[in-house]
Amino acid sequence: MGNILLVDDEEMILFTLGELLKSEGHSISTASNMSDALEQIEKTTFDLSFVDIRLGDDDGIELLRALRQKDQNCPVILMTGTPTLETVTEGLRLGAFDYLTKPASPVDLFRTVNLALKQKYLEEEYTQARTNLEAIFKSVKDGIITVDFDYHLLETNEGGGQSICGIDRSLIGHDIRNINLPCSRKCLALLTKTLTTGVVHEDNYVCCGLEQSSEKIVSITSSPLINAHDNSIGAVLVIRDQSRLIALERDLQDRHSFHRLVGSSEQMQAIYRLIENLKDVSANVLITGESGTGKELVAEALHHLGNRSQGPLVKVNCAALPNSLLESELFGHTKGAFTGAVRDQIGRFERAQGGTIFLDEIGEISSSIQVKLLRVIQEKEIERIGGQKTISVDFRILVATNADLQEKIKQGQFREDLYFRLKVVEVSMPPLRQRRGDIPELVNHFLETLGKEYQRKINKVDDQVLDLLMNHPWPGNVRQLRHTLEHAVVLCHGPVIGLNHLPPDFTTKATPVTTLEQKVQASPEMEAQQIKEALIACGGNKAKAARRLNMDRSTLYRKIDRYGISISVD
User: Which of 237, 253, 288, 557 is most buried, judged by most C-beta within 10 A?
Assistant: First the structure.
């Protein structure tokens, strides 16, 4: 039942309508003129109003206009004894729900009242549901973005859509593909998959690449957007910021791998943190270390995890080409620049446009190329060999060397100004012999990858083999370890690699390294004390204690059980 206001200058009409509506259980208020009606509206909220178009000296249309301004959700039914097309059209244009011709029959009256009140209640329910939904959207920290099949933005939330993605509701109706988003736009690929296939797609731990926060890591879910008739009308993206969770995980435990790098030693943890700090900056990076330590993997991680990952990664081994060919490879050449130059050819610098160029063995380039490289870094411009056109370039330079560049500078073989230009930040890869605690993890990693490559099911290496691998000096570092295990995997047809599967010269040329474990083997009491001290120093972290003792983790666990070692960490 509704609270209804009747406005008419005829008392008989007011009485008749009022009695009819009261008989249906409605609450009735009456007004005979415009000022009286407006006064009652200020004091009371009505569910429905009846307004006579002719109110003596007042105009019912003007009252309709005033009522609509006061309460947009109160239906107004116009009444007139002599309806005209002009007044009826104007009334409906201004928002009247319907009109009745006086005198109205009870059937028409009740039907119109019921329809008007039903619409009012439906609109109120919709408004309330919309308000609740907007409140939920505002409170949700996840980004929620909906689009139709033409990628037009249908809706987004301020709580997450704007803070995570930089998309606000003013962009509703725009093609999301054409919106200038300050991020890597990786979510659009997932959105396209859902719009194309009609199924849910997920991607976890995506580097968002927002300009204002290079550390933002998100998980993305793209689902079909279903209407009330169970038909797909587009897609909905839910983007959850995982940055804090990832940071907590990094703080709570060591990572055993990072990109394609493997190892949980303290040295590798420091490398991982340094790569994270460098991946989104434009600074040149010099990667140093012995041959086989993984310098190229560091370059790949800096590129693929950074904000230039959508661009190319161009690799150049400067030691593999003679300087005459290297210059052409780097800068390109024009047709006829030299004998054999039958056509124009772009160089590696141009191919790296928008991405990263990795110059390996940078210490081997000639002095003339060093001068040109210095100009590229300073001016961000190149000229092809034989050409006169200056070409602007935009790429990040990563270089690597296993040579001592400072010694080369002393000998006049490398420019000091170029060295400092390249070495804005240095990433120094430790040799394998300085992180022996990573060898068991590297062995397991290579057994898995090589097993898949050669279709072998090899579970582990023999304990004697592991001891030998742990004590080897590894002049070739991780690359040599991989090649040694590859040789063993090829020869091994069982689940365990034994000494007979290792290269013949490996055991004969191996130089044993005395480990802390070997030093204390003669005295179990001393060994137990050393283990206990290492556990205390590492706060009870067995993985760190094993690395500190230069001992395999599984071996440490066995010895803790054997000696009954237990410690309490405050």
Answer: 237
Q: Is 484:442 a contact under the CB 8 Å cutoff?
A: no
**pLDDT tens digits for 467-478?**
889 888 899 999
Q: How far is CA 454 from CA 51, 337, 406, 458, 465, in A?
A: 89, 47, 43, 10, 20
Residues 211 and 345 in one domain: no
pLDDT of residue 509: 56
CB 551 within 8 A of CB 516: yes
If one counts the domains in the chain, the total is: 5
Domain that holds residue 225: 140-245
Helix, coil or strand: residue 395: coil
Cβ 297 vs Cβ 259: under 8 Å: yes
* pLDDT score, position 533: 77
Please state the φ and ψ torsions of residue 462, each to the nearest 5 degrees. Answer: -60, 150
What distance in Å separates the CA atoms of residue 445 and residue 84, rounded to the nearest whole number? 88
Instruction: Give the Cα separation of 78 and 50 in Å (integer).
Output: 6
Q: Taking the CB of residue 224, how many other CB atoms lie within 10 A of it?
A: 16
Please tell me whether residue 90 adopts helix, strand or coil conformation: helix
Using the structure block, give the residue that is written with the tokens 């935009």: 394
CATH of the domain at 414: 3.40.50.300
User: How confident is the model over 285-325, as pLDDT tens digits?
Assistant: 999 999 999 999 999 999 998 888 889 999 999 988 888 88
**Looking at the DSSP assignment, which residues form a beta bridge with residue 220?**
203, 239
Task: Report pLDDT for 9.
Answer: 82
CA end-to-end distance (rounded Å), the chain: 70
381-to-279, 303, 373, 415 alpha-carbon distances in Å? 23, 21, 10, 20
Asked whether residue 267 falls in the same domain as residue 382, the answer is: yes
Give pLDDT < 70 ranges for the chain. 71-72, 83, 134, 136-137, 159-163, 182-184, 205, 208-215, 244-256, 507-523, 552, 554, 568-570
- 111 in the same domain as 190: no
In a domain, 495, yes or no: yes
Residues 481, 125: Cα–Cα separation, whole Å: 70
Shortest CA distance to 514 belongs to which of 467, 447, 556, 562? 467
Closest C-alpha to 367, from 422, 418, 315, 426: 418
User: Cα–Cα distance between 454 and 490 in angstroms, integer?
Assistant: 7
Note the pLDDT of residue 211: 45
- Are 122 and 101 in contact, with CB atoms under 8 Å apart? no
Do both 394 and 536 map to the same domain?
Answer: no
User: Buried b / exposed e across 142-177, counting CB within 10 Å, b at 16+?
Assistant: bbbbbbeeebbbbbbbebbbbebbbbeeebeeeebe
Running DSSP on this structure, what letter comes out for residue 47?
Answer: S
